[in-house]
Design brief:
By secondary structure, the chain is α+β, with helices and mostly antiparallel strands. It is built from 11 helices and 15 strands.
């Protein structure tokens, strides 16, 4: 498994583009993205569990019900959610895109992200689609990654190269996500492409299985978004024998997908609104994997812990507190906790009780940009990892005037 350049265009047969069409007021911000496959691709998706769902999700689910798609169009700056004409607008976006690409509208995935409850004017999108489609390029992944950003401060992309059946295969992805990030898939936009040949049912299985330990293990602020989803397109142009069942080829595919997803998870968590630090909670010694997941998510979601990490305060009691209310069946008297960063590791809790440690050394460790919170439960072999970020003054500033 090798990390390579190219992002969402690393796989054979994929091109992308991103432009400013006029949805966003800032003309320097791209706001319309397109990803296109030369061949119709197997398609799989997971969607937000929020009962309030953006119109694009309803349309996308309808379009990929047959297991196939060929293009993804996405706008930023407006979520197209809670609008009376939302479905109509999303369908028209698909139709305009399909006309430009000379494909069926039913093969278009449509997505929107931004402010909820504001009408989405189709005019700028209709005007922009011709230049958007004409500018499609195998080098257009970065432009597309930029065009789906909202409060994100950095583009998020990754690609890997691997082999299946002796064929060189590729997988790449782009993501947006900074706020309204909380477990219960999906809570961000993620678009993944691959040239692997895989049956739609197996692609959906791979995605659904992997998000349980990747995207569902992120939390920035505890708010589950209304719009966001994860979509994978697999066009088969690598030339491997189609993956139609479990086996070695499927295992390699799962490894590639997990590599891409974990990378994007870390980028999303690190770029949380106002964040200064990436937090990674690694839980081991759990009775089972579900217990480990429950504990890891509870710790990473604790506002008090997140605030302590912002202040570089080794307040380990907040870790124990989060474990205690997590609902997991844990023997607190077996819990060990330590903090780790590039500056070293420091144990702060043993068997559920505090131990002596250097506050100065702890401060030095917690001032780093990436902090690992290591929790051992002493009950078994279950493991899990969750990702989050610190809670800063800027989070309130950003969301206090989000619409303006």
């Amino acid at each position: 498994m090798k990390i390579i350049n190219g992002g969402v265009c690393a796989a054979k047969g994929f091109a992308a583009n991103g432009i400013h069409c006029g949805i966003r007021k800032n003309r320097t911000k791209r706001d319309l993205a397109l990803v296109f496959s030369e061949k119709k691709a197997s398609a799989a998706a997971v969607y937000t569990t929020n009962l309030v769902k953006g119109a694009p999700l309803t349309v996308t689910k309808r379009h990929i019900a047959d297991g196939y798609a060929q293009a993804i169009i996405c706008n930023s700056g407006n979520a197209n959610t809670c609008n009376a004409d939302g479905i109509e607008i999303a369908e028209k976006m698909s139709a305009l895109c399909a006309d430009a690409l000379k494909i069926s509208a039913n093969d278009v995935v449509v997505a929107s992200t931004g402010v909820i409850g504001q009408p989405l004017d189709l005019g700028p999108i209709a005007t922009g689609i011709p230049s958007l489609s004409q500018g499609l390029s195998p080098d257009g992944g970065e432009a597309a990654a930029e065009a789906i950003m909202t409060t994100d401060t950095v583009k998020k992309e990754i690609a890997v190269e691997f082999e299946i059946d002796g064929k060189v295969c590729h997988m790449g992805g782009i993501a947006k996500g900074s706020g309204m990030i909380h477990p219960n898939m999906a809570t961000m936009l993620v678009f993944i492409t691959t040239d692997v040949a895989i049956a739609p049912a197996m692609l959906q299985r791979a995605l659904s299985d992997d998000i349980a330990k990747t995207f569902n293990m992120i939390s920035v602020d505890g708010d589950t978004s209304t719009n966001d989803n994860v979509v994978v397109l697999a066009n088969g142009m690598a030339g491997n024998t189609e993956i139609a069942e479990e086996g070695e080829a499927f295992d390699v595919f799962m490894q590639a997908l997990n590599t891409v997803n974990v990378h994007l998870c870390r980028m999303i968590a690190a770029d949380g609104e106002g964040a200064t630090k990436l937090l990674e909670c690694k839980v081991s010694g759990a009775a089972d994997e579900n217990t480990a997941k429950t504990v890891a998510k509870s710790v990473i979601c604790s506002s008090l812990l997140k605030a302590a990490m912002f202040g570089a305060d080794a307040n380990w009691g907040r870790v124990l507190c989060a474990i205690g209310y997590s609902g997991a069946d844990v023997d607190v008297e077996k819990v060990d906790v330590s903090f780790v960063s590039a500056k070293g590791e420091i144990a702060v809790c043993k068997n559920g009780a505090g131990i002596e440690f250097s506050e100065e050394k702890a401060k030095e460790i917690l001032l780093e940009k990436e902090i690992d919170i290591i929790v051992s439960l002493g009950d078994g072999n279950g493991e899990a990892t969750a990702w989050g970020c610190d809670l800063t003054y800027d989070y309130v500033k950003i969301n206090g005037d989000y619409r303006t």
